Each structure stands twice: as structure tokens, then as C-alpha cells.
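Researcher: Please generate the 3D structure of the following complex. Treat every line as part of one assembly.
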Amino acid sequence: AQSVTQLGSHVSVSEGALVLLRCNYSSSVPPYLFWYVQYPNQGLQLLLKYTTGATLVKGINGFEAEFKKSETSFHLTKPSAHMSDAAEYFCAVSLYGGSQGNLIFGKGTKLSVKP
Amino acid sequence: NAGVTQTPKFRILKIGQSMTLQCTQDMNHNYMYWYRQDPGMGLKLIYYSVGAGITDKGEVPNGYNVSRSTTEDFPLRLELAAPSQTSVYFCASSQAEAFFGQGTRLTVV
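Model: Done. Output below.
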């Protein structure tokens, strides 16, 4: 069965510092992996996704993630944090690759950015 | 573009009351989903649909019902509201990518 573990429910960084949000998954089939961002009182917005091919995936707002099969990880990074990055981030795996909305979500990591 | 529209945005229900959360999408997506979000728990799938007339249970379907009579609409029904159903509910639709609505914040008292 698929599952997602996000390490750290809260992460705090200074503006300009590296952002690293950790995600590990388990899947019995080749995974389709996603990162979503949720701003306060908003819905979820897709940051990036891995389906097949290149393991380093670039997304919106300067974020990227690397799929590492040997480590079953899909960590999200951004070289330099901005105040506007403060939000909650969710890692997810798709139960069925062709239908990318049938998702198993991690519990989320709330990112705070200090000036 | 409207995308996925959910109504209402907020609702307070008394225990035992019923209500329908509405969800409409204008992207002609076949797949639609209902999730609930509880603090610190991420999102859990309640029900999903792969097309008009076809629905199936997700991870946490108890206490809910759905129908899908058209491609556009996927309402979620709570028949006998319970405090455990206090949550934020998100509807989503997808073809190649999932799009989420803005959510309905439901409180059962």
C-alpha cells in the first residue's frame, strides 16, 4: 500500500536561507509523486510533480524536488527562501498514475520564514 | 476561468442535521474527488468518481454519500451530522493534473 511520510510538521528558516522539506514514500508500484502548497484559507496548488523520466523536477516559484528511488525520497528544496514562501506544504503519491487526483497525502509541513 | 467551485464556504450544523456540499467544475474533467482536511493529518480521500454515474469509496467514506449525475457536478451529502465531521472539505477534479476548490469549512455543534 502507498503511504507518505513528511519529516517535521514545522520548519523555520531565515529569509534567503535554503529551504529543505523532507518526504519519504512507500509504494508497491512505480510512484507518481507531487508537492502541493496551501496558503492560509486557500485550496491546494500544485508546485511540481514527478511521473517518469528526469528525476530532478523543477516547479513553480523556484522550487525543485529530486526523486531518489534508492532512498524512496522526494525532498523539496529552494535555494533562497522568500517571505512569500510561508505556507503549508504537502507531499503526495498517486494511487493510480493515470488519475493524478486520487492521492495519498502526507500530514504536511508548515514553513515559516523569518525576516 | 472558474476551475473548481465549492459552496458554501462556511457552515455550522447542529448534530443530526443534514446538508449537501456542492462542487462544480468547468474543465470537463472525468475524475472528481472529495477530501477532508483535519489539522496535522493532511488530506484524506472520502469518495471519488471516474465519470458520470460512477462513484467509489475512498479512505474515510463513513457518514457521507455522493452522486455524479453530470460531468460537472459532484455533491457530497452528510445525512446525520456528527461532531467528528467538523473539518475542511475540498473538492478536486483531474485529468492530467488535479485542481482543488477553495474548500468548505464545516463545524458540527
